[in-house]
Amino acid sequence: MIDLRSDTITLPTGAMRKAIFEAEMGDDVYGEDPTVNSLQELAAEIMGKEASLLVPSGTMGNQVAILTHCKPGTEVIMEADSHIYYYEAAAASVFAGVQPRPLEGKRGSMPAELVEWAIRQDDIHLPPTSLICLENTHNRAGGTVVPIEDMRAVHEVAARHELPVHLDGARIFNASVASGVPVKDYTACVTSVQFCLSKGLGAPVGSILAGPADFIEEARRWRKRLGGGMRQAGVFAAAGIVALKTMVERLAEDHNNARLLAEGLSSLRGIDFNPEDVDTNIVIVKPTTMSVGQIGSELEKRGILTVVMEPDRIRFATNKEVNRRDIEKTIEVVKEILGE
Ligand code: TLP
C-alpha cells in the first residue's frame, strides 16, 4: 500500500514509542501530568505565546478557540474553503452559536481589504464581528503557504478594529519549513493558534492551542465542558515532545516528494495542473479525461490510496510513510490508468 490519503496516517517513530513507554504521568485534569506540562511549556515557547493547552484533535483546538473568543450571536470571518468552514460539521454554529462569514480567498489567503469590508458596523440588525480565522498552510487550496505579508495585513486590520485573530495552523510547521519564515513570525500576527502534532510531525494523537495566559485558562474550561479533559495524557504528550524536537526539519522531505509527484503528474495530458502551485506536502489535481471517482478507485485497486475531493479534484498528501520510490510508482500507475 502507498497511503497518500493524508499526513494524519503517519505512525509514531521508534523514539516516540520509547518516550511513550518511559513517560511520567499524572492526572492532567488536576494539572498533574508532568509530561503534558512539559509539552505545553515547550509548545508555548515555540509558538511565542504565554501559554498552551493540549487538546485531543485539531478540530477541538479550533472549536475551543472559537468558544473562548466569541459570544453566541456574533459572526466569525473565515475563508470559504477553510477547514473550520468546510470540514468541522458546522461545529462553530452548533457549539459556539456563531454565524460563519465565509470569504473567498486566493490560494487560501483572504485579502485584508476584503476582511475589513466584511467587518460589521455597529447596528442592531447585524451580528457583531467577534473573530477572524486564518489557515496556514491552507489545506483545500492545495497546502498553500499564506504569505507572511498577507497575515500581517490582516493582523493590522484586526488590531485597528480591536478583533482577535485565530490561526488554524494545523500545518504551520510545513508553512515555516517551506517558506523559511520562522513559526513565531506567523504566530505574532494572531491572538491564538492551533497546530497538530498528529499530522506530518508523526505523533499519534494531539493538537496544541496556544495564546495569552488568560485565554488559555478560559480555553481549559471549554475543553472540559466538551469532554476533552484528559487524565494520564502524558502517554501521548510524550510523543508530542519528540515530534516537536525531532520531526520538524524532515517535513522538507515530504515537500520534495510532493514536488516530484506534482511534476510527474503535470506532464500527463489527462491532468490539468501547474506544479508551481505546490508549496508543501499536498498535491490537488484536476483530471480532464476521466472522472476523479474512477481514478480514485483504479488507484486503490493497485494499492495507492488518495482522497477524492468532490466534485472534480483528487488529493495526494505526502507523508513520512511514503518515499521517493513510492512517488515514482504512483506517477507510473496514474499514467497507466490514464492510458498514456
Ligand atoms: N484535516 C484532515 C481532514 O479533516 C480533512 C486531512 O486529512 O487533511 N485544520 C486543518 C487545516 C486540517 O487539515 C485538519 C485535518 C484539521 C484542522 C483537524 O484536525 P483533526 O483531524 O485532528 O481534528
Can you offer a commentary on this structure?
The structure is a single chain. The chain contains 14 helices and 13 strands. The two termini are 23 Å apart. Helices cover 42% and strands 16% of the residues. Strand 5 (129-135), helix 7 and strand 6 (165-168) form a beta-alpha-beta unit. The model has no long low-confidence stretch (mean pLDDT 97). The longest helix has 16 residues, at 251-266. The strands form three sheets. The protein has a seven-stranded mixed beta sheet, with helices on both faces. A four-stranded antiparallel beta sheet has the order 9-10-13-12. A two-stranded parallel ribbon has the order 1-11. It has helices spanning 14-22, 34-47, 58-69, 83-86, 91-96, 112-118, 148-160, 172-179, 183-187, 213-225, 234-246, 251-266, 292-301, 324-337, and strands at residues 2-3, 51-55, 75-79, 99-103, 129-135, 165-168, 192-196, 207-211, 271-272, 282-287, 304-305, 307-309, 313-317. The chain is α/β, with parallel strands linked by helices. The protein has two domains: 11-246, Aspartate Aminotransferase, domain 2, CATH 3.40.640; 250-337, Aspartate Aminotransferase, domain 1 (Alpha-Beta Complex), CATH 3.90.1150. The protein is globular, with a radius of gyration of 20 Å. The structure holds ligand TLP. Ligand TLP is lined by residues 6, 8, 57-59, 83, 87, 135, 139, 168, 170, 196, 198, 207.
